[in-house]
Amino acid sequence: MTFMQNVMLRGSTYYVVLNIPPVARHAFAGKNQVWKSLRTKDKTEARNRAVPILAALEAQVKAASVRVAPTPLPSAVHQRIIIPRDHALAAIERWRIASVQRAYDEHWNDAAPAFAKFSDEAVRLSDIRYKLSVHDIDGIPSFYPAFSDALNTQGVGADPAHPVLPKLASAFADAWANVERHIERFRGGDFEHWPETAVEDATAPAPVAVPKAPANTLRIMEAFEQWNASEQPKEPERVRAYFKLLVSFLNDKPMAEIDHQDLDRFKLELRKYPFTKKDVSKLGFLEVIAKFERDEPGYPRLSETTTYGYWRHFNMVWTFAHGRQLIPFNPVSVVMPKKPAAAIKRKPYDADDVAAIFSTPLFHGASKMLDRKGGRYGYAKERGGVLVKDAYYWLPIFALWHGVRMEEIGGARVSELIKIGDRWAFDWTDRDLKNESSARFVPIHKKLIELGFIEYVQSQPKGGFIFPELPHDPNDEEAATKQFSKWWGFWTAANAKVKGQGFDEPKVKVFHSFRHSFKRQARGIIQENISDILSGHKGIASEGRKYGYGAEFDVLVEAIDMIDFPTFPVLPG
């Protein structure tokens, strides 16, 4: 491919762009296109940087495209097979030996793909090796597709969603890690200790296929798992919970026997289902409703928007099964509710909320804050002398005084903190944020400087994230703050003086409310377009192009310093 086909200008930065063929997408977390920032605005420099990155990507595509057989999806035609444990373990070992031997031959003949020591590919492989060594399976998006491919190359047909794979994940992680260690040695010119002692014949008999079941016996969860393997939704566990409730209500009837009357009955009961954070997983669908009706009269129920999400996914799976002629009809389409009106708008935290939130032990000192492993302990409800200034301390403060999105500050890096003139700022002009207008310079508010935020950032390891304790995924900008978002909901409930009131007002007051608080405080004080630039509603893609390193940056500094929250309490140093 030519340079111009693979290098594109997005905003003011050049990126390498490569289309991934379907056969290789398993190695790229299912993506059909990969973007790699070249971190430069200069076309000539971009051309030079693009060459090794393109070569590494194309080599990765080529390696991922070498497959003996396509991964079979469970369906009416290809039923999920039974895989004996010993057969799978033997296949993993055969794959390990074959992979190491292939790497040995490639490096011995100087035919292995080359890449720079600190290139994106080198960093990616280093990250995978580390995660394999600690068995961080969830941290490797391509793990199960790679595991599936490994088994397929050894004659054991298993799709990435096969239930055997998680049970043998540790064994495959160790095998993969072993392959990577050998490759690293071969890359350094060390060819000793290979081949290993010959392994006895690990040939396993062909796996036994499950007899094809008649289509009218298909169960709800079986159809869901087939759809899940095919479509790979973003939050499969959350969606799986929807279907478990339906199965609980219908007593796991075959899908072909479920009609619109069954679904109408479920619809009526679903309207009674509670909105709760309690663990009710051990109770059946109707048992949960009965418990809340008995113990908590007037309990909050699932919103219309939430229940619509249930039906939307039910319809997807029934449509999937019907389209593949696994069931005779789709009754969900008959009872499908109308899409509800727009959700209730979020409310800002008002002056009283700001005073109450930042007067809690989280920001002044609690009796205990961290557990033995250094993780957050509870919700810091009891006052004491322990004050920990980490992500849980700084995220709410930063969000209030800057109006940024939670994932923007949660995923910020130490290297993004720069000094323009005599003022500190975050340079987010080269980050893959929510949209192009999110790319901008964000001056650090004088309040944060006063509280010691700059010293905190500078104390973190250079080249890393400013909040290393959060889970970071380079393929998911929001990964760092997903868990924190849930924690914040529990924290507000635990620290509110009255449940459901004040800053614990359900649904309408959430962490995003800080963003609304900033916008409301800015209204009438600074120009709306400047407020939009600061908060990321407009950035370098529009009005924000005018505000950069020069005198225009002073306009942003002057504007953000005009933002004040009089009820924000004095915090300990």
UniProtKB/TrEMBL annotation:
- The DUF6538 domain extends over 8-63
Q: Which GO terms describe its molecular function?
A: DNA binding
Question: Where on the tree of life does the source sit, at the highest rank?
Answer: Bacteria
The Gene Ontology biological process terms listed for this entry are: DNA integration; DNA recombination
List keywords of the entry alphabetically.
DNA recombination, DNA-binding
Which named protein is this? DUF6538 domain-containing protein
Q: Which organism is it from?
A: Brevundimonas mediterranea
Q: What is the lineage of its organism?
A: Bacteria, Pseudomonadati, Pseudomonadota, Alphaproteobacteria, Caulobacterales
